[in-house]
Amino acid sequence: MSQKNFERKMNRLEEIVEAINAGDLALEEALARFEEGVGLIRELSTELTEARGKITKFVETLNREVPLDVPDNS
């Protein structure tokens, strides 16, 4: 997942929400933007789930290598 790509999708989603909330779009355009927004939400959700999985694996590996809950008595 590219941070710039994720941010670009988030920015586009914000634009869509603002445009729909403004109420100035014709019905067909509002529906098209809504559909685009739903697609972006799905993509962003997938990317966040993947990132969460990577973080979880990293923390589990770190805990195996250096237990974080064991006090350092040095």
List the helices and strands and how they pair.
Blueprint: H1 3-22, H2 27-65
Helix pairs in contact: 1-2
Give the N-terminus to C-terminus distance in angstroms. 40 Å
Tally of structural domains: 1
Overall residue-averaged pLDDT value: 90
Radius of gyration, whole Å: 20 Å
Oligomer: single chain
Order of helices and strands: HH
The CATH architecture would be Orthogonal Bundle
Approximate strand percentage = under 5%
Strands, count: 0
What fraction, in percent, of the residue positions are helical? Answer: over 70%
CATH class: Mainly Alpha
CATH topology: Helix Hairpins
Class per helix and strand makeup: mainly alpha
Q: How many H/I helices? A: 2
The coarse overall form would be rod-shaped
Major beta sheet summary = none
What are the segments in which pLDDT stays under 50 over at least 5 consecutive residues?
A: none
